[in-house]
Amino acid sequence: MATYNAPLADIEFVIKNLIRFEDVASLPAFVDYEMDQDFVVSVLEEAGKFASGVIAPNRENGDRIGSQMVDGKVVLAPNYTENFKQMGEAGWYSISMPVEYGGQGLPELINTCANEMWTAADMAFSLWPLLSAGAALAIEAHASEELKNTYLPNMLNGVWSGTMNLTEPQSGSDLATIKTKAVPEGDAYRISGQKIYITYGDHEGTENVIHLVLARIEGAPEGTGGISLFIVPKFLVNADGTLGERNDLHCVSIEHKMGIHGSPTCVMQYGDNGGALGYLVGQENRGLMAMFTMMNEARLKVGLQGLGISEAAYQQALYYAKERVQGKSAEGGKAAIIKHPDVKRMLMTMKSLNEAARALAIVESIGIDIANHHTDKEVASKAQKRVDLMIPIIKAWITEIGQEVTSLGVQIHGGMGYIEETGVAPLYRDMRITAIYEGTNGIQAADLVGRKVGGDAGETMFSIIAEMEATHVALAESDSLAAKKAHEIMGHAIGGLKFTTQTVLEKLKDAPQQALLASFPYLMQCGYVMGGWHMARSLLAAESLLAAGDSNPALQAKVHSARFYIEHVLPRAHGLANSVVNSDDDILTMADEMF
Amino acid sequence: MATYNAPLADIEFVIKNLIRFEDVASLPAFVDYEMDQDFVVSVLEEAGKFASGVIAPNRENGDRIGSQMVDGKVVLAPNYTENFKQMGEAGWYSISMPVEYGGQGLPELINTCANEMWTAADMAFSLWPLLSAGAALAIEAHASEELKNTYLPNMLNGVWSGTMNLTEPQSGSDLATIKTKAVPEGDAYRISGQKIYITYGDHEGTENVIHLVLARIEGAPEGTGGISLFIVPKFLVNADGTLGERNDLHCVSIEHKMGIHGSPTCVMQYGDNGGALGYLVGQENRGLMAMFTMMNEARLKVGLQGLGISEAAYQQALYYAKERVQGKSAEGGKAAIIKHPDVKRMLMTMKSLNEAARALAIVESIGIDIANHHTDKEVASKAQKRVDLMIPIIKAWITEIGQEVTSLGVQIHGGMGYIEETGVAPLYRDMRITAIYEGTNGIQAADLVGRKVGGDAGETMFSIIAEMEATHVALAESDSLAAKKAHEIMGHAIGGLKFTTQTVLEKLKDAPQQALLASFPYLMQCGYVMGGWHMARSLLAAESLLAAGDSNPALQAKVHSARFYIEHVLPRAHGLANSVVNSDDDILTMADEMF
């Protein structure tokens, strides 16, 4: 099996060529670090070592042995507990959390790049620190100073871990129908109800598990406006910080899933014996808003999961394609299968999609840093709007193309790909959840079209399209043949996106159900065109460095992958645009019996 | 979980509207049956009952318990043995085999439709009768009368079963390097070597297992021209038909696969104790040719597997979409998720792809009957050429779109789709093998472009395109708006296919490696455009029946699915055409280190 290597060269290319690094480095929160790009790369080099050296060797255990329920207790996969502790101690999952609560205080940009690596190394494991960091982030943003001081330090150093409790059997994509109850008792609340799909909902891997639970305070209004957010610890925390009694909650069962076997997905029961003690985070009835503030980060991370698994699949497939001898080369001799044109096509499809996804995610991640830390409110708010628009695209597009990339990873292995021990089938199974959780990709599309594009009448989207048009002009000014061809193809792609954006805006006004019907192909079109935009920028940057005498072999490789993306992948946008335009009332008004 | 129902209404629509049934019914082999379309439908109705009533209820056992190796013996999943016996007794897997050896003597057309059902009911089980029928077919076509009489009757009635032994560890897609040895001994041969990926290679489910084994007779030339085909029975057969000694072969181990758990995939060892007795089928050194004659049938069946699983996934997803209440309808009330536009989009994508695939497979299956049975050699040979061209498209396109269809089936279930017990995840895992075995889809594409399109300088392909153009004209003559729109979209699609076919032919002459690079997108383009062609024909047929007063609700449903396919799915062909045209030397000449 191939050893996972963090894609540092490509990350470095993006950080040095596709973003304005000073936009982040000059933020007051980071200016004292005097960061440069090489600093970022050196931090990520260490992250890569941790991912490859500590997490990845255990991936197979995670999948094959998995986490199991034994005698009513959740037993985690071998080495998971030790690795989580080590990761917390090293500060790897608190990279972008504030220093005052034990975080590293570094930009989200770095956290973004590192998250790709954790997933690539072992997605099922990586969900544990991811959820812990997510829960900590919600507490940091909304809880009282007392709660923050009580919970955050141990949640960020690997001693405790955290979970998110949203879903109930009747409340999946639609949280308005949540029934879990909270009854006031002194300064606290008694929580009772059932939550499902709780990732790392229970286990013996940390001393305490801190649950964030959405519940409805007795007498609260129905719908989303009556939901509050609570901290519900597995063990109550005494005033001196030591652990007290066991709280009234337990794991009923864990799910038998297609993948991410190392991650226990729990059914959690609260309050069977009078109610679990919970502490309100933020304001009453504003729980969903509190959750939403961290949703962008969570959805970005799921997009990065798509990328991380895709990168792992690419590396495995490439390794196999160089090793496996089968058939003859064009010259007639024995050939490793990488010599066969169709295998090259598959590898380049994987590679170029991964690079486009990586560029897109990293470029947009700095918007989170700017939105969180810029002192000019207007700049911060503009950055926030762009992040809000881009997040559903990053989450859904990357996890969709990731299904294709991992599938190609299986395909390149031939029959071996279908055998579990080869190690690529588990990636394919793990990947499948990313299109579903943290808001299905259909929900992302509805959010993109309805709230985001519709929310400002297309203003933010058109401002991004204007940036693409600037790249389009730059392509025309280059005299390389590849850039000229890219100019032509990008021209069609950008024109198509302008047109469908207008179409979607019109539908939102006149026929909103049609806009929803068009939303998924529109989102995918956005993803492909934006990926093409960054690959075109990459092409220009690489060609100009090469022309200036830079002999880094990664630059020539980038010219190839950019060309491949633009000439072979980007043309898919055309079909998607047609689907957007053709979204009319035909199937919307069709009787259910016609299906 | 949804109960599987054979899609009889859609099959009936295809048989009555998209093929000239008399082309089959009038063949001398079938003329005595005085078949009409209703006869076919009534046979298929019984097949559907067997699939739903006997095979399907056991699918979960097949996946969850699976077939296992216990104390050196392969133990099949519960009920598999009983069901195989019953299926053989009923004659369900010998539908199109000759009556003289115990077959039913019916057209391949019927067998094609039935095969979709067996897979939909339980793919892992269905491989057993499929491989048995395939082995029987090879014997029927090439073996001596004595061997036929000895082996065929028991192989076709469920008493014995059959296998195909091609692959060896070093010989996967490329069979030229096969090492298994055959040493003459009297009238027979002693076989020794190892074969891998042998489906139902060993088990106690039938009294005997008849292996067809590719091996190299001592002294035979190297390469594909030195490979012969042998019958190697697990138990030797005495002159009186009773079973004799155990032959020198055994199953070493079975594979741990991502799916089709019910089907034991064996490593078979021949000749550890002096050599297994084998009997030559057909001529020395012509074994690969003998295998090739049955490859079209086998590849068609794998295409049908893609369709069968896709249909099962569609039925499950539709059932769930009607049951699951989540979110609000456009009118504001509680809504089953089928009311949400994006869920409708997913269901219609699944449904319309399935219908296009079914039409394509059934329409082309009659070519096999004509090629096998027409008395006019020229008609038979023309039909054979068309079958040869269409088979790689049917195999690869249907199994590729099938990955998407089953994935959408998972997606519609949301989080439930990822839970194994829901029953759709197993379909997704089972489906993945279809793109790999019986010649990977990359091999199919190379075959299509190199041997088939290139083999007659595009003559057969252009003759099919000419038929599409006739449909294109008919669309213009209809006065429905749907047909007018279809006329426009099909016009682009057909024009694109003409252009890329020309492009591929030119590349074959001037730059064959570029033709191979273009082969997979070209194959996919063929599939989408041909699927569009049959959906356009379906649209015209349904509209004309409706206009004539036919009130069958399936007709209105067909208008919807045809429109959806043409307006939302078919435009994908454009991107694929671009990829074909853009296949140049850039990545072909790129150094391996650039990956």
Number of beta-strand segments of chain A: 14
Radius of gyration of chain A over all CA atoms, rounded: 24 Å
User: Strand order across the biggest sheet of chain A?
Assistant: 4-5-12-7-6
Gap from first CA to last CA of chain A? 45 Å
Please state the average pLDDT score of chain A.
97
| Largest sheet, strands/sense/barrel of chain A | 5 strands, mixed, barrel
Q: Which term fits the overall shape of chain A?
A: globular
The share of residues in helices of chain A is: 55-70%
How much strand of chain A? 5-15%
- The computed structural class of chain A is alpha+beta
What's the number of helices of chain A? 18
Low-confidence spans of chain A: none
The most extensive interface between chains reads: A-B, 88 and 88 residues
Give the oligomeric state of the chains in this entry, treating copies of one chain as homo and distinct chains as hetero.
Answer: homodimer
Describe the structure.
- The structure is a homodimer of 595-residue chains.
- Chain A is of the alpha+beta class and 595 residues long.
- Among the domains of chain A are: 161-286, Butyryl-CoA Dehydrogenase, subunit A, domain 2; 442-594.
- Chain A is 56% helix and 13% strand.
- Chain A contains 18 helices and 14 strands.
- The first copy, chain A, has helices at 8-17, 22-25, 37-55, 59-64, 80-90, 108-142, 145-156, 287-293, 295-323, 341-373, 377-412, 425-431, 441-453, 459-477, 481-510, 512-547, 553-569, 572-581, and strands spanning 68-70, 73-75, 160-165, 181-185, 188-199, 208-217, 228-233, 235-237, 243-246, 249-254, 265-270, 276-281, 325-328, 334-336.
- In chain A, the strands form 4 sheets. Chain A has a 5-stranded mixed beta barrel with strand order 4-5-12-7-6. A two-stranded antiparallel sheet of chain A has the order 1-2.
- Chain A is globular and about 75 Å long.
- The two termini of chain A are 45 Å apart.
- The model of chain A has no long low-confidence stretch (mean pLDDT 97).
- Chains A and B meet through β13, α10, α11, α12 and α13 of A and β13, α10, α11, α12 and α13 of B.
